[in-house]
Amino acid sequence: MIALLLRLYPARWRARYGDEFAAVLEERPLGPFDVADILLGALDAHLHLRGLGAASEHGRGFAMSLRIGGYAAIGGGVLWLAGLAASSADGSDEASPWLALLLAGTVLLLVALIGLSAFQAREYPRLVWVAFLVPAAGTIVSTVGISGMWLAGDKLWASGPSTWEIWMIGVLALLGGSGLFAIATWLTTSLSRIGTIALGMAAAVMVLTFAGSLSGRIGDEAGFPLFLVGILAFAGGWILLGVSAIRAGRRVVLPAAGAPA
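-> structure tokens emitted (261 positions)
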């Protein structure tokens, strides 16, 4: 992974700073936050051919990523809630413009997960990577389902799942990944505890509610209140995590790579 990431930097940059930067990266596990930070550093190196300090100043970059992740979590939670509520109230089997709002919220939540995963990835890198990759795959699946509903409505594809069911699989992946992220966040006590609890409980409740509704084990009378509580707690949990990340970004500045703590 490190060798592949370093190959993204210009040859002149690698010749001068490659060994030192590789040593810095080998000191800790790489999470989604680190990979995104390195990719941005590689782009900056190609554009400006700056030195190692510009590519690995994790103090300023860390605080900035926390703020970006925080704003993305707040915006994603709001858009996701608004899109899901509006598309559910629409009651149509066809794709509505509100689903595009929901999809935009999903993408923002992925950005939030990357920006807010720096703490957790240090101690639980595998858990954080799964928490990112599952909803990332779910976003692709959701896009396929929404595109199918726009093109053909809620219909079966080649005797398989309907476009709505494909979209729902993507939503469940987002919920499951968010639940895993909540577990990692709880274990590291890095962000809002209330937001973490709300996000984890919401993910569990909504996954169980969706699964019970699809299997017929949970009826509409019991399912709707659970569903309503779940979506409110899910969006609220992300918003609370976003607010706590923005506050942390304002007061936490990590030492630059290689500097004494």
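The chain has two domains: 11-56, 64-251.
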